[in-house]
From TrEMBL:
This is Class I SAM-dependent methyltransferase. InterPro entries: Methyltransf_11, SAM-dependent_MTases_sf. Signal peptide: none annotated. One of its GO terms (molecular function) is methyltransferase activity. Keywords: Methyltransferase, Transferase. Residues 76-125 form the Methyltransferase type domain. GO terms for biological process: methylation. Residues 216-238 are annotated as: Disordered. The keyword Methyltransferase applies. The keyword Iron-sulfur does not apply.
Length: 238
């Protein structure tokens, strides 16, 4: 298994249109995320990365939505996703739409998202599936220099393992197929063969286990037994 952190960096595409059939990928991803956006509530939604900024999230009840990236449009905060300029536990949801595939240090990116998320906050990840036909094309040397094949493709199990180490509860994860030649997409393939879909999505929530004892329970557990009035020590005769 190749290490997650690499020294070289690959410039991510600024728009979905920069990818072959990129608009089809974006529309298919929006359909997957639409029912989950409707379940999210709070004050701040953070869209991290160029491609995340173009995801339509109008159905989300979180009104304040901020796009964070080093470049691209639309952009509200220009910052490195590995150094988010936000306080700890200040964001209700983070969207990483195909941000991990073009990140040199995905572990650090996930830790930054975990840092700014509140307890029970939402984290959405999407990426390309290395176990699909798109992943097989990545083996062709000529295609490795062109998007999306110049991206890093992590397996679903590997990403789920990273989230479990950060104590995230995965609410939903699946792969789905996108067929550029039909607007309906690969619904049949996505239903029966989701593991072979060219795209994959993960929806998780941050869970925090309190490390401090409840003061009320602590006082109850340490309450000494009252001595009975007039009680004396008795010895059993042999």
């Amino acid at each position: 298994m190749k290490p997650a952190r690499i020294p070289q960096t690959v410039s991510p595409p600024e728009r979905w249109a920069d990818l072959p059939w990129g608009e089809y990928y974006r529309e298919a991803l929006e359909q997957q995320l639409k029912p989950w956006f409707a379940k999210m509530y709070g004050f701040h939604l953070l869209k991290i990365g160029n491609l995340s900024a173009e995801i339509n999230s109008e159905c989300c009840a979180i009104s304040h939505q901020v796009n964070v990236s080093l470049a691209g449009q639309p952009l509200q905060v220009k910052a490195n996703p590995l150094h988010l300029p936000f306080a700890e536990k200040s964001v209700d949801a983070c969207l990483l739409a195909h941000t991990l595939p073009w990140c040199g240090d995905p572990h650090r990116l996930l830790r930054e998202a975990d840092r700014v998320l509140i307890d029970d906050g939402w984290l959405i990840l999407s990426s390309f599936n290395p176990m699909s036909l798109m992943g097989l094309r990545k083996l062709v040397p000529v295609l490795r220099r062109t998007p999306p094949y110049n991206s890093r493709m992590f397996t679903m199990m590997r990403q789920l393992d990273w989230l479990s180490l950060l104590n995230f509860e995965v609410m939903y994860h699946s792969g789905f197929q996108v067929l550029p030649w039909t607007r309906r997409g690969g619904k049949l393939l996505s239903t029966h063969f989701p593991a072979l879909g060219c795209m994959q999505v993960i929806v998780a929530r941050k869970r925090t286990i309190p490390l401090t004892l409840n003061p009320m329970k602590q006082s109850k557990s340490k309450t000494p037994l009252r001595q009975a009035v007039g009680a004396t020590r008795q010895y059993r005769k042999p």
